[in-house]
Amino acid sequence: xxxxxxxxxxxxxxxxxxxxxxxxxxxxxxxxxxxxxxxxxxxxxxxxxxxxxxxxxxxxxxxxxxxxxxxxxxxxxxxxxxxxxxxxxxxxxxxxxxxxxxxxxxxxxxxxxxxxxxxxxxxx
Amino acid sequence: xxxxxxxxxxxxxxxxxxxxxxxxxxxxxxxxxxxxxxxxxxxxxxxxxxxxxxxxxxxxxxxxxxxxxxxxxxxxxxxxxxxxxxxxxxxxxxxxxxxxxxxxxxxxxxxxxxxxxxxxxxxxxxxxxxxxxxxxxxxxxxxxxxxxxxxxxxxxxxxxxxxxxxxxxxxxxxxxxxxxxxxxxxxxxxxxxxxxxxxxxxxxxxxxxxxxxxxxxxxxxxxxxxxxxxxxxxxxxxxxxxxxxxxxxxxxxxxxxxxxxxxxxxxxxxxxxxxxxxxxxxxxxxxxxxxxxxxxxxxxxxxxxxxxxxxxxxxxxxxxxxxxxxxxxxxxxxxxxxxxxxxxxxxxxxxxxxxxxxxxxxxxxxxxxxxxxxxxxxxxxxxxxxxxxxxxxxxxxxxxxxxxxxxxxxxxxxxxxxxxxxxxxxxxxxxxxxxxxxxxxxxxxxxxxxxxxxxxxxxxxxxxxxxxxxxxxxxxxxxxxxxxxxxxxxxxxxxxxxxxxxxxxxxxxxxxxxxxxxxxxxxxxxxxxxxxxxxxxxxxxxxxxxxxxxxxxxxxxxxxxxxxxxxxxxxxxxxxxxxxxxxxxxxxxxxxxxxxxxxxxxxxxxxxxxxxxxxxxxxxxxxxxxxxxxxxxxxxxxxxxxxxxxxxxxxxxxxxxxxxxxxxxxxxxxxxxxxxxxxxxxxxxxx
Lengths: 124, 687
Prior knowledge:
The complex is a heterodimer. Chain A is mainly alpha-helical. Chain A is 66% helix and 0% strand. Chain A contains 5 helices and no strands. In chain A, helix 2 (19-42) packs antiparallel against helix 3. The longest helix of chain A has 24 residues, at 19-42. Chain B is mainly α. Chain B has a domain at 543-605 and 648-687. Chain B has helices at residues 26-48, 52-60, 65-96, 115-149, 158-180, 205-233, 246-278, 291-323, 332-345, 361-373, 375-389, 398-421, 423-429, 433-462, 468-494, 510-540, 579-585, 607-623, 627-645, 656-664, 683-686; strands at residues 599-601, 652-654. In chain B, helix 8 (291-323) packs parallel to helix 11 (375-389) and helix 8 packs antiparallel against helix 12. The longest helix of chain B is centred in the first third of the chain and has 35 residues, at 115-149. Chain B is globular. The chains are: A mainly alpha, B mainly alpha. At the A-B interface, helix 5 of A face helix 8 and helix 10 of B.
């Protein structure tokens, strides 16, 4: 990945940049995040489906940003960035996974409710 | 959408009124007088000696990694002193306010600090020590040393390096400004939730805390990117991964932590900001908010931050111990593996900061075991250092003494850390000063490493050694003070003293509290010797060789002392892991290049300091809700970035004959020498 350092515009990563991909990435992110907000505000879905839906929308948004906005792919110029992103996946699993486990445990132990209110809602 | 706030607000000055200036508080008025006097003396000296132009051209606009590193260290030392005074104020309050009959002065019912002021003092102490003292000091050391240690000309992104410094400085200035305009957070350095929410902290204190950290942490993140790229891409020819010095390895791992962890801090503070400014409910007690979400996210950053600080400290020990044992580091490969093991595990231990929150035994058990696992790679490191010392030819210079004292602090801090990793013990001593004593052992180990590193690499940067005699006095007074203060604090923790007390209800604690105060006085003595060490060293300025210690092993000691601004006249070819030791063994350490080649250098630029100062006004505008100031500053930052992106300055080139001349007269190439204005390269010359 040798690159000329005197002119940034000749850098292979810059040369791969594309206006339509920026715009598409921006649009996709706006739509997906708006969808997540709408789902949250309407509160129509049951808790499990709701959680899965916004997690899926977040993942789709992340992929849209990575692929379209940042232009990550497996080309010679971008592969190191793509690999770097993949290498952060264990950190996501650790931090998000352990957080979910911890809050699940916490809710069962500290948010004990009377029998008729036991059904968890979105706000819990 | 914007949240209504208590008190007056005007479009011109936002929440800022004359009552925000604490001119009735004698402590703050005195502090202001001292600060203003120091500022006047410094400014007067600069003007009297006609150094304003020099200061601007050579330092404030520099992109040289060594000068940036030195300025990071100066900022860190100033903030370290400020936070020490905060610590002294806390200990003095606790030594005075014991029992219901203790007198009160300066408006306090007991002691001399009212609770509102005391709370700000401990919040500032922690925030500054972690984020505005230890972090810039370590960043400064890595900035100075790593490019030299890997044989690079500069950092990968010199302009971004300067920007990182000025963003950190902007955050530090905001913290200092809170002394004299408004107040600081009363919610602890961790931002105890829900105290940081607007209904509980309606003033500007939390905003100062939040924006200062937010701005400086952007600087830290940018620096992390810079350091990672520098280490991966800019190593000298021949320096394969298994020839990289251990300090550089630890810098790489610590900056990977920085790059991955600091954005979480940015997010959690942004969400808190949304609560305070926009009326959202991320961390409120109602409307879907979740208090624990803040604590959880804060510590997901907070615990890796601990290793962000301690890993470079381990790296410093790994450089100093072999140098003064005259032996290669024992177990290089395991040392590197242990470094990355610690960095990896650091992501799975954060919940031990809130074992008592109420999670189940399974969750607490997992995090307890994960925390204890950190002891394995740390133990590997300690044994490696011990085996390096074993049968070495030991020289007890001040860097070596600091390193050995650091190992002792690691032992005490590590063992008490193991105790705290057990949830049952944690439930007993949680929120007591036992915890404070434990983590102070760890951060003082970092401080010991910083002092070791500063003394060790100082002659490389400036060409003369720090005075050893005063350095030893500084060391012994500092370490004795540490032992006195924190032994007493461990005892008080076991006796049940909780942290952050502005009034001591139990007179039985008086002897230990007074012991702590005596230790704080000894710290004052150590500051005297530190300043005397600087004074005597600057006065005498005894020149040193390229390797001032005579037994150094790594590449940075191959080039001259003081190091020229271009680092190496010729990029070195690396032949071994301890390159200088290898060259010494082969009689090549004094070899000089026969011919020189042109050296391409980056040009200085004023854009980073301008963006830094605009970030300061942006932060100030947001804190006081002066919307025009915040908006104007943000717009100006965006414009400055755009202008910079169209800057066609391609740097300049040092001609071989110019390099040869400077190699003959090194004083002209040192980082304190003023350089002549140089013409930037044209497009044609660059190609």
